[in-house]
Every structure is written in C-alpha cells, then in structure tokens.
Design brief:
single chain; mainly alpha; 6 helices; 79% helix; 0% strand
C-alpha cells in the first residue's frame, strides 16, 4: 500500500463521518424551518374576512404547494447557514460571490412570503397585487441573472481564474 493510499484510508472514515454529520445537520435545519414556516403561514398571514376559498377538491393541492414552499424555505435557511463557503470557494470576485449567495438565498426563501401575500390580497386590490408582483418578480429576475453570471463565469474558468 502506498503512502497516498494509506493516508486516504486513514482519513476516509473521518471524512465520511463529518460528511454524514453535515448532511444530518442540513436535513434537520431544513425540516425544522419547513415545519415552522408551514405552521406559521396562516398565523402570520390569516385569510382576510370574505376572501374566496378554493373548492374542497383543490385544497390538497394548495396544501402540497405550501408544504413545498416551506421545504424550499428550510433549504434556503440551510443554504444561508452552510452555503457561503462553497460559493466563495468558486474563485469568483468577492462582489459576485456575495451577490450570488444572497441571490440563491432569495430564490429559495421568497416563495413562502410571496404566495402567502398573494393568498391574503383581496380580489380587486390591483395596487396591492402589483406591489407584490413587482417586489418579488423583479427581484427574482435579478437574482436569476446574478446566478447565471456566476455560473457562466465559474464554468468558463473552472480553475477559479476570472
């Protein structure tokens, strides 16, 4: 056995254990925040009096969408906690790394408040709807553009050179 194989063999169980702990921690953070946001959604944004309710046959689909948004929110929190080191390690300019880190977080976190604000906006409140859509849609478009620039640059210069 070569020295390289021996050193890999002795480090691998520790690395595997650390990776497993990171994964478990990430899953727990994600599911914990998903549970909290799923439970708090209707408390923070109660349905307005007189708001239309969906037909009972569609309610499970709305619940599924809300659950997916909550899980994505949990993943967003997990990304905020653990993701910056990976983004910064891609060898891109610091401004682009920070912008990408914030953009990815926003792309994951924003759906929960966005949908809940839509749900609680009364029919006919076009100004409110427009404010929600401008506030979320334009920022999501900008975030997508930032991520695209980061990906293009990182893939164009995989060694980290810009």
């Amino acid at each position: 056995m070569s020295d390289l194989q021996a050193s890999s063999a002795t480090r691998e169980p520790r690395a595997t254990g650390a990776l497993r702990i990171r994964w478990i921690t990430g899953v727990l953070v994600t599911l914990g925040f998903a549970a909290v946001t799923f439970g708090l959604g209707r408390m923070i944004w109660p349905a307005p009096v007189g708001a239309a309710e969906p037909p009972s046959g569609l309610v499970p689909f709305f619940i599924g969408l809300s659950a997916a948004e909550s899980v994505l929110f949990g993943l967003g929190v997990c990304f905020i906690v653990f993701g910056y080191r990976r983004v910064a390690g891609a060898g891109q300019p610091i401004w682009l790394s920070y912008a990408t880190y914030l953009a990815v977080a926003w792309l994951m976190l924003s759906w929960w408040p966005h949908d809940n604000l839509h749900r609680t906006t009364l029919a006919g409140n076009w100004t409110g709807l427009l404010a929600i859509d401008y506030g979320f849609h334009l920022t999501l478009m900008a975030a997508s553009g930032i991520v695209a620039v980061f990906a293009y640059r990182a893939l164009r210069h995989p060694e980290g050179r810009t």
